[in-house]
Write a structure and sequence with these properties.
It is built from 13 helices and 4 strands.
Length: about 375
């Protein structure tokens, strides 16, 4: 990596880390303000006045919760919009990484907020219905609902969500597609097809993925990757992505996530009702939607505390997938050159601070991945190298 690019990568990472920290602080402040002050209760009362009770208690309960969640999400979106715009639009353009104009950025942002609202309506409505109907065991059933929802989203994401933001089309390079399919089938896998992921309309970054579960699996390759990388480099990148499937990393993360959800909601159940009693002194029920900022705050803090652990597990999985790619392709030089190009194109800091890597990185540092490939290259027989 050239000295100037290396400096830019470090600055780019530092800015994004500061933005992440600012997002954490602002999130905690906003949620605390809604919970500690009358804001949440006032919002609920305003909404309650406009929803007739004549529709029946269950319907009234669901409509009240839905209206509150929509209003709460939109208020938060407005509060966070300047920070998010600065990070995802201004900074990306400042470092020459974005191809989006403001109109298209706003269109994507609008889609994200709609998806966020719909997701909250499903998950949080279920949570509060269970708080209402199953006050003793709500946390167990909520964990089950969230686990099932995670499985469904993992399955439908490549077919329903991804196309909302990016165009996907079969790749034109039939030779490369054939090599990829042959490799995957040889390793016992099966995919719907190999698709070009049109990233260039939005970004200059490169990416690839083995997306979906079950019969929905697709190999998707960014057009920014297809244009700038050799077939051998792409083969090692695809082999890495398939390695995640081969080691069943998605399913393992779902299992780990299931344990995390159950433990998290058990902990929230222990804390939640005591804090509600302290705040509202018994004049609202636990299942009143006005208590949502506290639920959201507890979930958010638990996720932050658990993040380094999840990142450590993810880095372990990434090392497994790297090793799989090296062993199955036997092309360490192509792997190394591919990693080097990805670091430069995506402006990734190849040598991050160890504490930052431990806390925030879901992948090992690029320098460590390259070093592991170089070590692998030293230990394999000359006849197997980049054949």
């Amino acid at each position: 990596m050239m000295a100037e690019t290396k400096r830019d990568a470090k600055k780019y990472e530092k800015i994004n880390n500061m933005l992440f920290l600012a997002d954490i602080v602002l999130t905690v402040i906003v949620l605390l303000c809604f919970f500690i002050t009358p804001l949440s209760l006032d919002l609920m009362k305003i909404i309650e006045k406009n929803i007739p009770e004549s529709c029946g208690q269950p319907v009234h309960f669901i409509l009240l919760n839905a209206a509150y969640l929509i209003a709460f999400t939109l208020i938060n979106w407005v509060i966070f919009l300047p920070l998010h715009y600065y990070g995802s639009y201004h900074i990306e353009h400042s470092y020459g990484l974005s191809n989006l104009n403001r109109l298209n950025w706003f269109k994507d942002e609008s889609k994200r907020i709609i998806i966020t609202v719909l997701t909250k309506l499903i998950l949080i409505e279920a949570l509060y219905l269970l708080l209402w109907k199953q006050p003793g065991s709500w946390w167990i059933w909520t964990a089950v609902v969230w686990i099932v929802f995670s499985v469904i989203m993992s399955k439908v994401y490549p077919s329903l969500i991804l196309p909302l933001f990016y165009k996907l089309k079969p790749i034109e390079n039939e030779s490369l597609a054939g090599k990829i399919k042959t490799f995957i089938e040889k390793e016992g896998g099966r995919v719907l097809g190999v698709y070009e992921w049109v990233l260039s309309e939005k970004t200059k970054k490169a990416n690839a993925a083995f997306a979906g579960m079950g019969n929905t699996k697709k190999v998707i390759l960014g057009d920014t990757l297809l244009r700038n990388y050799s077939e051998e480099e792409i083969e090692t990148i695809v082999a890495h992505e398939f390695g995640h499937h081969r080691f069943r990393h998605i399913y393992k993360f779902l299992y780990i996530g299931a344990v995390f959800y159950i433990a998290s909601f058990a902990l929230i159940n222990m804390i939640f009702k005591g804090l509600i009693d302290m705040r509202y002194h018994g004049y609202i029920e636990f299942y009143n939607i006005a208590t949502f900022p506290l639920i959201a705050l507890l979930i958010y803090v638990i996720q932050l505390i658990a993040m380094p652990t999840f990142n450590a597990i993810s880095r372990f999985f990434e090392r497994q997938a790297d090793r799989f790619a090296l062993e199955k392709t036997g092309k360490p030089d192509a792997f190394i050159s591919g990693m080097t190009k990805l670091a430069e194109q995506n402006l990734a800091n190849k040598e991050p601070n160890g504490i930052i890597e431990f806390l925030l990185y879901s992948h090992p540092a690029i320098s460590k991945r390259i070093k592991a490939a170089e070590e692998y290259k030293k230990n394999i027989s000359p006849g197997r190298r980049d054949n």
